[in-house]
Amino acid sequence: MDSKTQAELLKLFRSKITRTMSYYLETCTRCGTCTDACHAYASTGHTKYIAAYRHEIVRRLYKKYFKARGKFWPSVGEAKELNDMAIEELYEAAYSCTGCRRCMVYCPFGIDTQMLMSIAKLLLIGANAEPEILTLLADTSVEKGKSLEFFKDNFLAGIKQLEEDVVEKWRTEAGQSAIPVDVEGADLLYVALAGAHSIIPAAAVFNAAGEKWTLSFFEAVNFGAFVGDPTKTKLILDRIIAEARRLKVKEVCICECGTAFRIMKQLAGEQPFKVSAITEVHARYLREGRIKVDKTLFSEPVTYHDPCQIARNAGVSDEPRYILQQLTNNFREMTDDPRYNWCCGGGGGLVALGEETLDFRMKSAKVKVDQVKASGAEILSTACENCHTQLSNLNDHYKMGVQVHFLSSMVADALIGAGKERPAS
Ligand code: SF4
Ligand code: SF4
Q: Which of 202, 296, 310, 375 could form a disulfide with 303 if both were Cys (CB 3.0 to 4.6 A apart)?
């Protein structure tokens, strides 16, 4: 690594050193409490996956370049040179961590591994060593935000084709659009993922509840956050905020995408709308009697996997359980306290990297598989696209023999009421 690149990277590192980050960088006592907390370590036994070990990869650079002791007596300060080998270590640490923050729950000082790994990810971007595909996907999202007019017509044509499938789940009144798009003055803006599975069941439930809603032109996923680029994360977020403000909605509902929800919830700032996860909205409809569901449809034992970015990291864990209590008499917990639920091993961009990470994802999530098996469930429900993909991969790999379902689809399939019948032809 040449000195110019090193200087640029150190500038990036410095930009991340806030007061909170300094606390995380300075505080670890190496007590070892977090050792078994990481699913990757618990599943494989490899020391490099212990949270505190990952921290040290970043901390040693901090000691070398930002602490007096490290600058003058590197061996005493356990400081480490920022060079090509360090970049490789940063990659290994950052892209084997899902950012699930289970270790943070165990750490007596609440040291946030996801935050420390955000330094690693930023340095990787600076060194052009991040996974290229994540940057490409983030760039595509940013471009889409700048040129809505170019893709608007194609998007609307695609949405039109889905309407019949929505009506099959819940009949709409004559003249009423089954998937309203770009409706100014709607109460709720739904931000989906690309793909019919994220739109059709959600639309049916909104229509059944009599919601005044509209679909977003943009997909929820934030690849800027996966790759750890704060600028792109904000640009991708801002296009949805601008749309919500333009349409004057009162609520932005994020589909089953954990990272998209956490980013919107925590980074949107003060806005004239509230931010909800789709599970919160569905639980509200059920509580208020705006929708009714058939409790006999799912008679098999059902369990729920808490997506880390929705439950542990954004506090939504009661609502999915309330929904499941309405959907089945056969719900089984995997853990007494959702904060300690194992991560599925698919977050942090790992699922988005596909085959490249498949072997690691399967090996590092053995503890999750054991947890699901111990529940005796035949239906494994969840509320995040990444988790759904990873759990489906685990189901195939370990031959778990469960059905993996999106919770929102279960709600849509179980809807009962006058709109359930097919419209008269
Ligand atoms: S955030 Fe999750 S994946 Fe990362 S070290 Fe902690 S427990 Fe492991
Ligand atoms: S639990 Fe916290 S203080 Fe203890 S080793 Fe882990 S990160 Fe360090």
A: 375
From 23, 26, 27, 28, the mutation candidate for ligand 2 (largest count of ligand atoms within 8 A of CB) is 28
Burial (CB < 10 A; 0-12, 13-18, 19+), residue 290, is middle
* Of 56, 109, 113, 114, best ligand 2 pocket probe by most atoms within 8 Å of the beta carbon: 109
Residues contacting ligand 1 via CB (< 6 Å): 37-38, 40, 51, 54, 97-103, 113-114, 343
- The structure tokens listed for 159 are 């949405």
Task: Determine the distance separating the centroid of ligand 2 and the alpha carbon of 104, expressed in angstroms.
Answer: 8
pLDDT in tens, 77-122: 577 899 999 999 999 999 999 999 999 999 999 999 999 999 999 9
Residue 74 has pLDDT above 60, yes or no: no
Instruction: Tell me the mean pLDDT in the region 296-322.
Output: 96
Fill in the DSSP letter of residue 321: H
Query: What does the pLDDT look like over 232-262, one tens digit per residue?
Result: 999 999 999 999 999 999 999 999 999 999 9
Residue 348 CB partners (closer than 8 Å, separation 6+): 94, 95, 97, 98, 99, 100, 117, 226
